[in-house]
Amino acid sequence: MGHIKTVEGQLDAKGLKVAILASRFNDFIVDKLVGGAVDALVRHGASREDLTIVRIPGAFEMPVVAQKLAKSGKYDGLVCVGAVIRGATPHFDVVVNECAKGLAQVSMQHGMPLGFGVLTTDNLEQAIERSGSKAGNKGVDAAMAMLETARVLAQL
Ligand code: INI
């Protein structure tokens, strides 16, 4: 039996320059996601001086700003956090689809590790559950996914 080579990312954020892109819409939820992302990165070795928080109006505006951040060459990874809540959003599907598709494009075009921490929920209660209560904090999860992906990409 041959040896199987495995590539996996170490969860070490030391020296990593990260932009956290956060929408203001539903900011009392999004602020919790930003806090979770910062806390996760710092606890895994990132220094606060290497983190930049960029605030934008809504999830729809995320891709174009992510694209500029990726193009700048100043960041090793992006963590995108926002909250799109269906109950309050007749154009929910449009906002969610454009946001997710645009961010995926940026990630692919620039080979940029990008954590997708945009909540897409049916109602406010589900958003609260995912931003630091019974379903955890998706800002933490997005930061960790970005970190692991960055460390994998660096080895390939
Ligand atoms: N943007 C969000 O980030 N979350 C939402 O829930 C939301 N709702 O409900 O409409 C939302 N809309 C704004 C959108 O992202 C744009 O900022 C707006 O359409 C202006 O371009």
Give an account of the 3D structure:
There is one protein chain. With 156 residues, the protein is of the alpha/beta class. 44% of the residues lie in helices and 22% in strands. The chain is built from 5 helices and 6 strands; from the N terminus they run βαβαβαβαββα. Strands 2-1-3-4 form a 4-stranded parallel sheet, sandwiched between helices. Strands 5-6 form a two-stranded antiparallel sheet. β1, α1 and β2 form a beta-alpha-beta unit. α2 runs parallel beside α3. The protein starts with 17 loop residues before the first strand and ends with a helix. 5-nitro-6-ribityl-amino-2,4(1H,3H)-pyrimidinedione binds next to β3.
Q: Structural class of the secondary elements? A: alpha/beta
The fraction of residues assigned to DSSP E strands is 15-25%
Give helix % range. Answer: 40-55%
Instruction: Tally the helices.
Output: 5
Largest sheet features: 4 strands, parallel
Rg estimate, integer Å:
16 Å
Write down the oligomeric state: single chain
Mean pLDDT: 96
User: What is the N-to-C order of secondary-structure elements (H for helix, E for strand)?
Assistant: EHEHEHEHEEH
The spatial strand order of the largest sheet comes to 2-1-3-4
Shape assignment = globular
* First-residue to last-residue Cα separation: 24 Å
Bound molecules: 5-nitro-6-ribityl-amino-2,4(1H,3H)-pyrimidinedione
Number of strands: 6
Uncertain residue ranges: none
